[in-house]
């Protein structure tokens, strides 16, 4: 009878997430995952499931970790406008300095369009970001830190959609200054 290897599931999921992040879902093989996780395939199947189930766990872990970090970071900033600026600058940092950029954006383009379960996780992440930012935008308007010529919802969508464009631009041009310049322009537009 085969013996299952006991392992730290959270650590294993984190290691698998790094593999998916680097290689993408479609290019990742089960062997890549089990090697990174330090387990055999039967242990993976018996505890987590197949590649797709593991991927769902990884994406969920990634997005929930980001949500928690963003919530903590935004709580520390008293000015809503400064919090928006910090969120934008943090996004720029992720896009231009993380070796594999944003796993959620990469997953959106690679997998989410044809996978309802992945799409649900990515949508939840996007809704979190939207709700976080719209709350900050509304508070900034109330405190007269910004003047919205359109509605707060439109401004929030505008901010979020910039991140995807910057991600694409950085993949193509690998130009940090270009992304930083666009972010500075966005902040200047919001601050008017």
From TrEMBL:
Q: Read off the InterPro entries from this record.
A: Homeodomain-like_sf, HTH_TetR, Tet_transcr_reg_TetR-rel_C_sf
List the source organism: Leeuwenhoekiella marinoflava
Protein name as annotated? TetR family transcriptional regulator
What does the record give under GO molecular function? DNA binding
> Which keywords does UniProt give here?
DNA-binding, Transcription, Transcription regulation
**The keyword Magnesium is annotated on this UniProt entry:** no
Q: Which Pfam families match?
A: TetR_N (PF00440)
DNA-binding segment(s): 29-48
Write down the PROSITE patterns for this protein, in alphabetical order: HTH_TETR_2
Segments forming domain HTH tetR-type = 6-66
């Amino acid at each position: 009878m085969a013996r299952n290897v006991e392992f730290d599931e959270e650590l294993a999921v984190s290691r698998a997430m790094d593999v998916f992040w680097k290689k993408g879902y479609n290019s990742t093989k089960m062997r890549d995952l089990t090697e990174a996780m330090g387990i055999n395939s039967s242990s993976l199947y018996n505890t987590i499931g197949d590649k797709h189930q593991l991927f769902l766990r990884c994406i969920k872990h990634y997005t929930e970790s980001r949500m928690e970090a963003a919530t903590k970071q935004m709580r520390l900033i008293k000015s809503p406008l400064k919090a928006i600026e910090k969120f934008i600058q943090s996004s720029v940092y992720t896009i231009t300095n993380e070796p594999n950029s944003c796993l959620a954006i990469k997953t959106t383009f690679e997998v989410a369009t044809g996978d309802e379960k992945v799409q649900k996780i990515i949508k939840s992440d996007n809704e979190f970001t939207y709700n976080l930012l719209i709350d900050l935008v509304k508070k900034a308007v109330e405190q007269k830190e910004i003047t919205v010529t359109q509605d707060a919802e439109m401004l929030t969508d505008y901010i979020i959609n910039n991140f995807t464009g910057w991600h694409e631009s950085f993949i193509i041009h690998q130009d940090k200054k270009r992304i930083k310049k666009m972010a500075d322009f966005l902040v200047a537009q919001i601050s008017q």
